[in-house]
Design a protein that fits this description.
mainly beta, 11-stranded antiparallel beta sheet, 4 helices, 13 strands
Length: 224
């Protein structure tokens, strides 16, 4: 194992870093129940970025399997989760990162739809001047010439967000991640990764009502 990068991101802060093809990105929830919003960009063309709608289809997984010479039956059903073995796809349907490890129990408890929190979200609750994940990510990608309106929907790791079909609404519950739980992804292309250590501690149980630090690491080997 060769560690390339190791940094603790404080609560309510953001970070942008490059992860090259073949490298591994690990995001660790140090104290448990902390959500991390992650946006991905092709490091060689920032206009190509994460597409969650492509990522949650079985077809995305089949594309990766086909590249490895594996045959899988056709299945175009979209799902409401991503976990180990799934591939995060871009807006032009290219593999960006493969989901390698997902340690919380149960697996797959991450938000894969809808936008991230932002100032207008907080203002709707009467909270003014509070940056959301969109503002945080906007700040960390600004040095790369990426505008706020060009940020894709994020995958929100560790967020416990599910659909209540009977009441036709989305429900937020406290994350299931415990101290030391992590997700790990392998870059399939050179990626610019931009993230926000979610600042929500005022409205609901998104972060267990308490924002805590996370650890970012990258590795150049699969032996992680």
């Amino acid at each position: 194992m060769a560690e390339l990068f190791n940094e603790v991101v404080p609560p309510k802060q953001g970070r942008a870093l490059f992860v090259r093809a073949g490298e591994y990105l690990r995001i660790t929830d140090l104290e448990g129940q902390q959500v991390v919003d992650v946006a991905l960009f092709n490091a060689r063309n920032y206009r190509e970025k994460l597409s969650l709608s492509y990522s949650v289809t079985r077809y995305a997984m089949q594309q990766g399997a086909a590249a490895r010479g594996q045959a899988l039956p056709a299945d175009f059903m979209s799902r409401d989760y991503l976990t180990e073995g799934d591939i995060l796809m871009s807006t032009i349907f290219s593999p960006m990162m493969t989901f390698v490890r997902d340690t919380p129990t149960p697996k797959g408890v991450h938000k894969v739809n809808q936008r991230m929190c932002n100032r207008r979200f907080y203002e709707s609750f009467g909270i003014y001047g509070k940056d959301g994940c969109h503002e945080t990510i906007s700040k960390v990608v600004a040095p790369f010439g990426i505008l706020p309106e060009d940020i894709p929907d994020t995958i929100d790791f560790f967020m416990n967000y599910h659909h209540d079909c009977a009441n036709r609404r989305w429900v937020v519950e406290a994350p299931v991640s415990k101290p030391g739980d992590f997700v790990e992804l392998r870059a399939e292309m050179d990626c610019l990764v931009a993230l926000s250590n979610c600042p929500e501690d005022t409205i609901g149980p998104i972060n267990g009502y308490h924002c805590t630090p996370i650890r970012l690491q990258t590795f150049d080997s699969s032996q992680t």
